[in-house]
Amino acid sequence: MSVPQDCYSKRIGTLQQMLRDAGVAAVLLSYSRSTLYYAGTTQPSILIMTSEDYHLVVIRGLDSALEETWFDTNRVSLGSGFYSAKEILKKWSVEQGRVGMELDILPTLQYAKASELFPEFKIVDISELVLQQRQIKDDNEIEYTKMACKIVHQGHLRLLQVLREGMSELELSAEIEDAHRRAGHEGVFFMRQFDFFMGRGPLSSGTNLAKIAGKIQSITGVGLSPSVPMGASKRTIRKGDMIVVDIPTHHCGYHADQSRTYVLGRPPDICRTMYSGMKEIADRLIQTLKPGIRCGALYKKALTIAQELGMGHWFMRLGVASKRVPFIGHGVGLELNEPPLLSSNNQQVLEEGMIIALELEMSASIGEVVKLEDTILMCSDGAEVLTISPRELQQI
Questions:
Q1: Closest to 82 in 3D by CA, of 129, 118, 132, 106
Q2: CATH number 2.30.40.10 is the correct assignment for the domain at 139-395
Q3: What does the domain layout of the chain look like in residue ranges?
Q4: Regarding the domain delimited by 5-134, which CATH topology (the fold level of the hierarchy) does it fall under?
């Protein structure tokens, strides 16, 4: 399914209005997720936009960009980055004011070059405007996300076929990853974080569940070496092991985020108890979800339910850490983790069209860990769970 031209033009128009409201003369967008969102291509390029006009300067891959973008050919040209952008702004008689760039991800050398080339302008950060706009998904984005959820389900089905005592975490992860790829996963996922690295996603079992890397506040696995200390390891899976799989998928730019908990054989009684309580919390939160609820209120409700169930001391703990994780989910879209953050201190209101991941976990001790995560669409009258894998504890 291709994105209709009027959908792209609406995105451009929305940002142009935001620029007028913010008093920004022009923006220069070079991040691949942004050029994909507005122009339909990720070829190396800079999207120049004012409140009245727009143009794409392609640095390399012009032929491919012309095939991919919805822009008319007169709005696309081969150029040399910021130098060409300045010439276009000059042609539009835009020679001073505030120019917006995504400063949270722009490399320092590019910022320095832009500062040198645009001394008449004040460079300001417009990352928040772009991310704010992206929070509300259109019908095409929702369909791409649904497809990513169908793809992630194929990994679940493959696990049920191949999980056996004696196989390594790495072998199991490879089987899941292969199923994802064969179903259409594009092989990578995007995180808006400097120097972020991970394999294809977290998979952890047994005692490894309590070993948490510092990169993300979630179950991580230990990886194969200190070079990438997250993801599957060569640990052998044994009878009675709890196994958490949190390997995301990516389809046409959009992600699915799903975690499921499995056990080979009979789970420890405490894990069965924790999972039952965790699923009840998730179910009650999903019933509560509707436009207008604040992220902080949702977190507070989750903690209240956990305490009502007598599970507050396990809820949102990582490994053997005593400190509780301060969020229970996040937005999902062109990046795997994006606003809104479902955190204890975030007063942002959830809106229709947002797609979020509700991410719950409990930990009692080393090896006694469970997790449940689903990708969810905010609808006008409630919430729709987009991930389709069974949400019960999977005993194999």
A1: 118
A2: no
A3: 5-134, 139-395
A4: Creatine Amidinohydrolase; Chain A, domain 1 (3.40.350)
Q: What is the number of other CB atoms lying within 10 angstroms of the CB of residue 101?
A: 23
Report the distance separating Cα 213 and Cα 314, nearest Å. Answer: 19
Q: What is the pLDDT of residue 318?
A: 86
pLDDT value, residue 1:
54
Residue spans of beta strands (DSSP E) within the chain: 26-29, 45-50, 54-58, 76-78, 97-101, 121-125, 203-205, 242-245, 249-251, 254-256, 260-263, 327-331, 338-343, 355-365, 368-379, 382-385, 394-395
Q: Does the pTM of the predicted model rise above 0.90?
A: yes
d(CA 269, CA 367): 13
In the chain, pLDDT over 90 holds for what percent of residues? 91
Task: Tell me the average pLDDT across 362-375.
Answer: 95
Decide whether 5-134 matches 139-395 in CATH topology. no
Q: What is the mean pLDDT of residues 143-149?
A: 98
How many residues are there in the chain? Answer: 396
Structure tokens at 6: 């009027």
Residue 363: predicted pLDDT: 94
262: which strand partners? 243, 394
